[in-house]
Design brief:
Shape: globular
Number of helices: 10
Strand order of the largest sheet: 1-11-8-7-5-6
CATH topology of the largest domain: Rossmann fold
Number of strands: 11
Oligomer: single chain
Bound molecules: guanine
Largest sheet: 6 strands, parallel
CATH superfamily of the largest domain: NAD(P)-binding Rossmann-like Domain
Length: 294
Protein backbone atom coordinates (compact mmCIF):
# COMPACT_ATOMS: atom_id res chain seq x y z
CA UNK A 1 0.00 0.00 0.00
CA UNK A 2 1.24 3.50 -0.85
CA UNK A 3 2.15 6.34 1.49
CA UNK A 4 -0.61 8.96 1.28
CA UNK A 5 0.59 12.43 0.27
CA UNK A 6 -1.73 14.42 2.51
CA UNK A 7 -2.78 17.76 1.04
CA UNK A 8 -4.89 18.57 4.08
CA UNK A 9 -2.10 18.47 6.66
CA UNK A 10 0.39 20.07 4.28
CA UNK A 11 -1.94 22.91 3.27
CA UNK A 12 -2.82 23.56 6.94
CA UNK A 13 0.88 23.86 7.75
CA UNK A 14 1.40 26.34 4.91
CA UNK A 15 -1.72 28.30 5.87
CA UNK A 16 -0.46 28.61 9.48
CA UNK A 17 2.75 30.17 8.20
CA UNK A 18 0.81 32.51 5.90
CA UNK A 19 -1.52 33.49 8.78
CA UNK A 20 1.51 34.43 10.89
CA UNK A 21 2.96 36.52 8.03
CA UNK A 22 -0.40 38.23 7.45
CA UNK A 23 -0.60 39.09 11.18
CA UNK A 24 2.92 40.52 10.97
CA UNK A 25 1.95 42.63 7.94
CA UNK A 26 -1.12 43.95 9.75
CA UNK A 27 1.02 44.82 12.81
CA UNK A 28 3.69 46.58 10.75
CA UNK A 29 1.73 48.21 7.95
CA UNK A 30 -1.80 48.25 9.35
CA UNK A 31 -2.97 46.57 6.18
CA UNK A 32 -4.41 43.12 5.45
CA UNK A 33 -3.88 41.61 1.99
CA UNK A 34 -6.98 41.81 -0.22
CA UNK A 35 -7.89 39.20 -2.88
CA UNK A 36 -10.79 39.63 -5.30
CA UNK A 37 -12.36 36.70 -7.17
CA UNK A 38 -14.31 37.47 -10.33
CA UNK A 39 -16.95 34.85 -11.10
CA UNK A 40 -18.95 34.85 -14.33
CA UNK A 41 -22.03 32.62 -14.60
CA UNK A 42 -23.26 29.86 -12.32
CA UNK A 43 -21.06 26.86 -13.02
CA UNK A 44 -21.44 24.82 -9.77
CA UNK A 45 -17.80 23.67 -9.78
CA UNK A 46 -16.54 27.26 -10.21
CA UNK A 47 -18.91 28.47 -7.46
CA UNK A 48 -17.57 25.76 -5.16
CA UNK A 49 -13.92 26.62 -5.92
CA UNK A 50 -14.48 30.33 -5.38
CA UNK A 51 -16.25 29.69 -2.09
CA UNK A 52 -13.36 27.48 -0.96
CA UNK A 53 -10.89 30.25 -1.85
CA UNK A 54 -12.92 32.82 0.13
CA UNK A 55 -13.08 30.53 3.17
CA UNK A 56 -9.35 29.91 3.00
CA UNK A 57 -8.70 33.67 2.86
CA UNK A 58 -10.77 34.20 5.99
CA UNK A 59 -8.86 31.45 7.81
CA UNK A 60 -5.52 33.29 7.35
CA UNK A 61 -6.68 36.90 7.71
CA UNK A 62 -6.69 37.83 4.00
CA UNK A 63 -9.64 40.01 3.02
CA UNK A 64 -11.61 38.49 0.15
CA UNK A 65 -14.27 39.99 -2.09
CA UNK A 66 -16.39 38.34 -4.75
CA UNK A 67 -17.40 40.17 -7.94
CA UNK A 68 -20.18 38.12 -9.46
CA UNK A 69 -21.61 38.61 -12.97
CA UNK A 70 -24.24 37.00 -15.18
CA UNK A 71 -23.02 34.62 -17.89
CA UNK A 72 -24.40 37.21 -20.32
CA UNK A 73 -21.81 39.87 -19.43
CA UNK A 74 -20.07 41.13 -22.56
CA UNK A 75 -16.33 40.83 -23.01
CA UNK A 76 -16.07 44.64 -23.11
CA UNK A 77 -17.84 44.96 -19.74
CA UNK A 78 -15.67 42.25 -18.18
CA UNK A 79 -12.55 44.03 -19.46
CA UNK A 80 -13.83 47.21 -17.76
CA UNK A 81 -14.17 45.31 -14.47
CA UNK A 82 -10.55 44.19 -14.88
CA UNK A 83 -9.41 47.77 -15.56
CA UNK A 84 -11.22 48.86 -12.39
CA UNK A 85 -9.51 46.16 -10.31
CA UNK A 86 -6.12 46.92 -11.88
CA UNK A 87 -6.50 50.53 -10.72
CA UNK A 88 -8.05 49.94 -7.28
CA UNK A 89 -5.27 50.56 -4.72
CA UNK A 90 -7.21 48.55 -2.11
CA UNK A 91 -6.92 45.36 -4.19
CA UNK A 92 -3.59 43.51 -3.97
CA UNK A 93 -4.46 40.71 -6.36
CA UNK A 94 -7.37 39.18 -8.22
CA UNK A 95 -8.36 36.09 -10.16
CA UNK A 96 -10.92 35.58 -12.90
CA UNK A 97 -12.30 32.10 -12.32
CA UNK A 98 -12.11 29.89 -15.43
CA UNK A 99 -13.76 28.63 -17.55
CA UNK A 100 -15.50 31.69 -18.99
CA UNK A 101 -18.58 31.59 -21.27
CA UNK A 102 -17.66 30.82 -24.88
CA UNK A 103 -18.45 34.36 -26.17
CA UNK A 104 -15.60 35.74 -24.05
CA UNK A 105 -12.04 35.34 -25.31
CA UNK A 106 -10.03 34.09 -22.34
CA UNK A 107 -6.74 35.41 -23.76
CA UNK A 108 -8.16 38.95 -24.00
CA UNK A 109 -9.19 38.68 -20.35
CA UNK A 110 -5.89 37.29 -19.04
CA UNK A 111 -3.83 39.74 -21.08
CA UNK A 112 -5.76 42.65 -19.56
CA UNK A 113 -4.92 41.71 -15.95
CA UNK A 114 -2.07 43.78 -14.54
CA UNK A 115 0.86 41.32 -14.13
CA UNK A 116 1.44 42.79 -10.65
CA UNK A 117 -2.06 41.70 -9.56
CA UNK A 118 -2.14 38.40 -11.50
CA UNK A 119 -2.02 36.08 -8.48
CA UNK A 120 -3.10 33.13 -10.67
CA UNK A 121 0.20 33.55 -12.56
CA UNK A 122 -1.61 33.23 -15.91
CA UNK A 123 -0.48 36.48 -17.62
CA UNK A 124 2.10 35.95 -20.41
CA UNK A 125 4.55 38.21 -18.52
CA UNK A 126 4.37 35.98 -15.45
CA UNK A 127 4.50 32.77 -17.52
CA UNK A 128 7.61 34.20 -19.23
CA UNK A 129 9.23 34.97 -15.88
CA UNK A 130 8.41 31.44 -14.71
CA UNK A 131 10.05 29.94 -17.81
CA UNK A 132 13.18 32.04 -17.20
CA UNK A 133 13.27 31.13 -13.50
CA UNK A 134 12.70 34.75 -12.38
CA UNK A 135 10.78 35.68 -9.24
CA UNK A 136 7.05 35.66 -10.07
CA UNK A 137 3.62 34.34 -9.11
CA UNK A 138 3.70 30.63 -9.99
CA UNK A 139 0.40 29.19 -11.24
CA UNK A 140 -1.30 27.84 -8.13
CA UNK A 141 -1.78 24.16 -8.97
CA UNK A 142 1.80 23.56 -10.17
CA UNK A 143 3.08 25.55 -7.16
CA UNK A 144 0.95 23.35 -4.88
CA UNK A 145 2.44 20.20 -6.45
CA UNK A 146 5.98 21.54 -5.83
CA UNK A 147 5.05 22.18 -2.18
CA UNK A 148 3.85 18.57 -1.78
CA UNK A 149 7.03 17.16 -3.36
CA UNK A 150 9.11 19.29 -0.97
CA UNK A 151 7.05 18.42 2.09
CA UNK A 152 7.36 14.69 1.40
CA UNK A 153 11.07 15.04 0.47
CA UNK A 154 10.49 13.42 -2.91
CA UNK A 155 13.69 13.67 -4.94
CA UNK A 156 13.09 14.98 -8.46
CA UNK A 157 16.70 15.42 -9.63
CA UNK A 158 17.56 12.98 -12.42
CA UNK A 159 14.13 11.32 -12.21
CA UNK A 160 11.83 10.52 -15.09
CA UNK A 161 8.73 12.65 -14.68
CA UNK A 162 5.77 12.02 -16.95
CA UNK A 163 3.03 14.66 -17.11
CA UNK A 164 -0.32 13.71 -18.61
CA UNK A 165 -2.07 16.78 -20.05
CA UNK A 166 -0.71 20.02 -21.52
CA UNK A 167 -3.14 22.65 -20.23
CA UNK A 168 -1.89 26.20 -19.71
CA UNK A 169 -2.98 25.97 -16.07
CA UNK A 170 -1.32 22.70 -15.00
CA UNK A 171 0.39 20.37 -17.50
CA UNK A 172 2.54 22.87 -19.38
CA UNK A 173 3.74 24.89 -16.34
CA UNK A 174 4.50 21.86 -14.12
CA UNK A 175 6.52 20.28 -16.95
CA UNK A 176 8.57 23.48 -17.22
CA UNK A 177 9.00 23.87 -13.45
CA UNK A 178 10.24 20.30 -12.95
CA UNK A 179 12.75 20.55 -15.79
CA UNK A 180 14.23 23.82 -14.48
CA UNK A 181 17.66 23.95 -12.84
CA UNK A 182 16.14 24.15 -9.36
CA UNK A 183 14.97 22.10 -6.42
CA UNK A 184 12.38 20.66 -6.91
CA UNK A 185 13.43 20.35 -10.57
CA UNK A 186 16.36 18.93 -12.54
CA UNK A 187 14.06 16.14 -13.73
CA UNK A 188 13.80 14.61 -17.20
CA UNK A 189 10.26 15.51 -18.14
CA UNK A 190 8.00 13.95 -20.77
CA UNK A 191 4.78 15.84 -21.50
CA UNK A 192 2.03 13.59 -22.91
CA UNK A 193 -1.24 14.72 -24.49
CA UNK A 194 -4.16 13.52 -26.58
CA UNK A 195 -1.94 12.93 -29.63
CA UNK A 196 0.79 11.00 -27.79
CA UNK A 197 1.45 7.49 -29.10
CA UNK A 198 2.25 4.49 -26.87
CA UNK A 199 1.04 6.29 -23.76
CA UNK A 200 1.20 3.25 -21.48
CA UNK A 201 4.78 2.53 -22.50
CA UNK A 202 5.73 6.09 -21.52
CA UNK A 203 3.78 6.27 -18.25
CA UNK A 204 5.15 2.93 -17.07
CA UNK A 205 8.70 4.39 -17.16
CA UNK A 206 7.79 7.32 -14.90
CA UNK A 207 9.41 7.64 -11.48
CA UNK A 208 6.92 10.47 -10.87
CA UNK A 209 3.61 10.47 -12.75
CA UNK A 210 1.47 13.62 -12.76
CA UNK A 211 -2.07 13.11 -14.06
CA UNK A 212 -3.78 16.30 -15.27
CA UNK A 213 -5.71 14.91 -18.20
CA UNK A 214 -9.28 15.69 -17.11
CA UNK A 215 -10.62 12.13 -17.46
CA UNK A 216 -11.93 10.28 -14.42
CA UNK A 217 -9.84 7.27 -13.29
CA UNK A 218 -7.85 7.27 -16.55
CA UNK A 219 -4.61 6.05 -14.93
CA UNK A 220 -4.79 2.34 -14.13
CA UNK A 221 -2.31 0.16 -12.20
CA UNK A 222 -0.76 -1.42 -15.31
CA UNK A 223 0.26 2.10 -16.51
CA UNK A 224 2.30 2.78 -13.36
CA UNK A 225 5.83 1.60 -12.56
CA UNK A 226 6.00 -0.22 -9.19
CA UNK A 227 7.00 2.27 -6.46
CA UNK A 228 6.37 5.35 -8.61
CA UNK A 229 5.11 8.58 -7.03
CA UNK A 230 1.65 9.44 -8.39
CA UNK A 231 0.21 12.97 -8.25
CA UNK A 232 -3.47 13.25 -9.17
CA UNK A 233 -4.64 16.70 -10.29
CA UNK A 234 -8.11 15.66 -11.53
CA UNK A 235 -11.35 16.22 -9.68
CA UNK A 236 -14.59 14.72 -10.97
CA UNK A 237 -18.00 13.84 -9.64
CA UNK A 238 -19.01 10.46 -11.08
CA UNK A 239 -22.12 8.33 -10.65
CA UNK A 240 -21.75 5.62 -7.98
CA UNK A 241 -24.84 3.63 -7.05
CA UNK A 242 -22.98 1.93 -4.19
CA UNK A 243 -22.56 5.33 -2.51
CA UNK A 244 -25.56 6.63 -0.50
CA UNK A 245 -25.17 10.00 -2.26
CA UNK A 246 -25.41 8.31 -5.69
CA UNK A 247 -22.03 9.76 -6.70
CA UNK A 248 -18.45 9.98 -5.57
CA UNK A 249 -15.59 12.40 -6.05
CA UNK A 250 -12.64 10.93 -7.88
CA UNK A 251 -9.52 12.03 -9.74
CA UNK A 252 -7.71 11.23 -12.98
CA UNK A 253 -6.22 8.17 -11.24
CA UNK A 254 -7.96 4.92 -10.29
CA UNK A 255 -6.92 5.27 -6.64
CA UNK A 256 -8.13 1.81 -5.52
CA UNK A 257 -5.87 0.09 -8.09
CA UNK A 258 -2.94 2.47 -8.30
CA UNK A 259 -2.47 2.84 -4.52
CA UNK A 260 -1.48 -0.86 -4.53
CA UNK A 261 1.55 -0.25 -6.80
CA UNK A 262 2.69 3.36 -6.15
CA UNK A 263 5.14 4.27 -3.37
CA UNK A 264 3.32 7.59 -2.74
CA UNK A 265 -0.04 8.84 -4.00
CA UNK A 266 -2.24 11.92 -3.56
CA UNK A 267 -5.90 11.28 -2.67
CA UNK A 268 -8.88 13.05 -4.27
CA UNK A 269 -10.31 14.89 -2.44
CA UNK A 270 -7.65 15.86 0.11
CA UNK A 271 -4.65 16.12 -2.21
CA UNK A 272 -3.64 18.66 -4.84
CA UNK A 273 -6.89 20.71 -4.70
CA UNK A 274 -6.20 21.98 -1.19
CA UNK A 275 -2.64 22.85 -2.18
CA UNK A 276 -3.88 24.97 -5.10
CA UNK A 277 -5.71 27.14 -2.62
CA UNK A 278 -2.70 27.37 -0.28
CA UNK A 279 -0.54 28.47 -3.24
CA UNK A 280 -3.06 31.15 -4.21
CA UNK A 281 -2.92 32.53 -0.64
CA UNK A 282 0.88 32.54 -0.88
CA UNK A 283 0.70 34.54 -4.13
CA UNK A 284 -1.75 37.00 -2.58
CA UNK A 285 0.61 37.56 0.35
CA UNK A 286 3.46 38.14 -2.13
CA UNK A 287 1.28 40.68 -3.98
CA UNK A 288 0.53 42.54 -0.73
CA UNK A 289 4.22 42.55 0.23
CA UNK A 290 5.11 43.68 -3.31
CA UNK A 291 8.03 41.29 -3.50
CA UNK A 292 7.49 40.43 -7.20
CA UNK A 293 6.56 43.87 -8.58
CA UNK A 294 7.63 46.83 -6.50
N1 LIG B 1 -10.23 27.09 -13.01
C1 LIG B 1 -9.65 25.91 -12.67
N2 LIG B 1 -8.50 26.14 -11.99
C2 LIG B 1 -8.36 27.48 -11.91
C3 LIG B 1 -7.37 28.32 -11.31
O1 LIG B 1 -6.37 27.89 -10.73
N3 LIG B 1 -7.61 29.67 -11.43
C4 LIG B 1 -8.68 30.17 -12.08
N4 LIG B 1 -8.81 31.48 -12.17
N5 LIG B 1 -9.61 29.42 -12.64
C5 LIG B 1 -9.44 28.08 -12.55
Amino acid sequence: MSILIDGKTTSEKIKSRIAAEVAHLIDNEDKAPHLVAVLVGQDPASEFYVKSKEKACQSVGIISSLYKYSEKITEADLLQVIDFLNNDPDVDGFIVQLPLPSHINVDHVINRISPAKDVDGFHPMNIGKMVLGAETYLPATPAGILMLLEEYKIETEGKNVVVLGRSNIVGTPISILLSRKANPGNATVTLCHSKSANLEEITSKADILIAAIGQPEFVKAHMVKPNAVVIDVGIHRIEDKTNPKGYRITGDVDFAEVSKVASHITPVPGGVGLMTIAALLENTLKAAKKTVYR
